[in-house]
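(Structure overview)
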Amino acid sequence: MQATTAPPATATHDYSAAMRAWHWVNAALVSGQLLTILFQKVIVNAKGAVPEFQEAITKGGGTLTQQQGRAVAHVISERIWTWHVWMGVALAAFWLFWTVMQALDPAGRRFGARLMAAARRYKLAAPTARPDARHALLAKLTYAAFYLFITLMVVTGLGLIWADDNAFLGSIEHTMKEIHNVTMYLIIGYIVLHVVGVVWSEITKDHGLISRMVGGTASRETPHDY
């Protein structure tokens, strides 16, 4: 009896316009949110900038009390966090966009089905094909982890927005902050691994991967990797 073998683990394909929009807009929004954290905690550091405000005003011939300096720092901090919140709301909208895309896709093309298919390919792969099958499965698993991180980020972020207006959300505000902060570091780690993986694939086996993600189009028969 002939042994069952798995189909090829990977195939070069283009990416749909919807997928590319989701990818790059999310990349921009996540990067923007991380930049607001960088400005808030490192570059601007509004709370620690009060002495610098006072020194600058003094050099100009004016005076600035500690209380006034804190008020200025608070304005700067609030402005940065406003940007952070609105980018978070936009990120939530695109998370919903991806969820709707998944719901509207045929069952066999949904991410969960393709993840299970990758697992089956790895299980059935011949020894010579196992490395490629393992790579395909690990890629799908990292995508799944990223979607989980984004979901946690969106849910906790929206919860924090309304924590002051809802008693239940207010009671778990600290927990949501902790989850939100930890998720941020997980997303940073994912971004680093993703960039390294894409560059490695580009220069080894999957030449043109970046070009296809920037300007590629997908046919109706081509599976969408989202």
